[in-house]
Amino acid sequence: MHAPGTVMLEARGIGKSFGPVRALSGVDLQLRAGEVTAIMGENGAGKSTLLKILTGDYQPDAGTLELAGTEVHFTDPRHSRIAGLRVIAQEPEVIAHVSVAENIYVGALRGPLFDKRAVYAKTRADLAKYGFERLIRPEALGSTLSPAQRQIVEIMRALVDEPAVICFDEPTSSLGEDESGILFALIQRLRDEGVAIGYVSHRMQEIFQLADRITVLRDGALVGTKLTAETDHDELVRMMVGRDLTQFFHREPVTPGETVLELRDVGNEHVSGVDLTVRAGEVVGIAGLVGAGRSELMKTIVGDFPITSGEILVSGRRTSFRSPGDAIAAGIGFAPEERKAEALVLQRPVRDNITLAVLKELSRWIFVRAGAERALTADYISRLRIRTPSSEQLVGKLSGGNQQKVVLARWLATRPKLLVLDEPTRGVDVGAKAEIYAIIDELAHAGVAVLVVSSELPEVLGLADRINVMAGGRIVGELSRAEATEEAILALAMDESRIS
Ligand SMILES: Nc1ncnc2c1ncn2[C@@H]1O[C@H](COP(=O)(O)OP(=O)(O)OP(=O)(O)O)[C@@H](O)[C@H]1O
Ligand SMILES: [Mg+2]
């Protein structure tokens, strides 16, 4: 191992364009042994592109890379891996039809000598070594994994190589509080062992907890690198966004109207005994740890999972949605947690993705009013600061956070009577978050009933009029805005998860 502070990875003057899009220009980065260097910047600032250049996934147009003092040119991620550099991807790829164990050791153990039992045992030991043993089973199939579990698979794949340099690209965007805690302990341990760590995140709290240094990018250029001890929240926001932002959002509650959504003793294989109401003009938050059943409850409401007991009423009428399509037709908007798999049409332009759900409104007879469609798209691109060369860009080519903004824009644009948002700001930068909160508030004031799931407690606390806490597929408590604190929510969420 190298002495703490030794520069293990040095990138100088990195440039990269995708056709007309200039993703990076003149970027320098140093990652030091025994230190965590955070890489921050708005959605589309170039963070993931920079990491993909380090691994050799992308070839830079300009600049040089040195690993432990030696210049390197990786043309294939396998080469950087052998050289001791790993990046935990923002959107981990997991093979659906094989087990966790095989996913972790993919490539390493193939052929006739493959001994499943031995691999499971090794995986179990490795999971325990890094503190993940409670969260995932070696035998579980890739297709059954939650986003958090897929993230763990991706992290384990890297750790089993014992790299000297390891970068995390928004690792906590799909993790809850408790998994994040395990991950932070792990990162601190790796740092103490002398690993050089790069860490991309939009969450300030984490940055201040973990990072020794912070490198900020804006519009593909380096703004600067600061020692964490010598900077603060406001300065970082200014460096990232280029302007000041007002303090954390707190919405003004409105007097709620009629009950829009009502669940009476709803149960199925994922949730049980759920009673819940959301009235027009109300924002109801759902909090809980990962695995508490929050996303499953949202999917149950929109008809993805059938109910086996109880009933769901929308505007007083009993529903029998058999798919989210039925729910949408009944005036419900649903932005799911897994934007890639469930929500976006990656091969279509930004414009189509935003207007998909409002086409009926924008259509006269069967013709879409092109002017109205353009105006709506332009409005959301600018309000949510969606970084795209034009409204015609394919969504698949946008950065992760910008894809998320497109999904949200689609549902915010529909003004449904009920809007169900699962982790609405997951992976979204600090400037756009504030705008998303303002739009949710606006919709509530216009009489929309909103149901929000979020793992970010400050977000639920700032947005929700009431907070329901889930654990083990049940609602274990409700907190009014006045009663709700991070401690109160966690106490409910953890207490119940221990019992079940
Ligand atoms: N394969 C590609 N083709 C075209 N443009 C791309 C491609 N990959 C990235 N870009 C563009 O390069 C810019 C930087 O993207 P990148 O993914 O590095 O951003 P990021 O900082 O990681 O953002 P986020 O916080 O949203 O993850 C964006 O404008 C993005 O749309
Ligand atoms: Mg990214």
Describe the fold and architecture.
By secondary structure, the chain is α/β, with parallel strands linked by helices. It has 2 domains: 7-94 and 145-241, Rossmann fold (3-Layer(aba) Sandwich); 259-499, Rossmann fold (3-Layer(aba) Sandwich), CATH 3.40.50.300. It is built from 18 helices and 22 strands. It has helices at 47-55, 77-82, 100-104, 116-130, 147-159, 177-192, 204-210, 233-241, 294-301, 324-329, 339-342, 350-355, 359-362, 370-383, 400-414, 430-445, 457-463, 486-499; strands at residues 7-18, 21-32, 36-40, 62-67, 70-72, 85-88, 165-169, 196-200, 213-218, 221-227, 259-267, 274-279, 283-288, 309-314, 317-318, 332-335, 363-364, 367-368, 418-422, 449-453, 466-471, 474-480. The strands form 5 sheets. Strands 6-7-8-3-9-10 form a 6-stranded mixed sheet, sandwiched between helices. A 6-stranded mixed sheet has the order 16-19-20-13-21-22, sandwiched between helices. The longest helix has 16 residues, at 177-192. The radius of gyration is 23 Å and the shape is globular. The relative contact order is 0.12. The mean pLDDT is 88. Bound molecules: adenosine-5'-triphosphate and magnesium ion. Adenosine-5'-triphosphate is lined by residues 18, 21, 23, 41, 43-49, 90, 387, 397-402, 429.
Briefly summarize what is shown.
The chain is α/β, with parallel strands linked by helices. It has 18 helices and 22 strands.
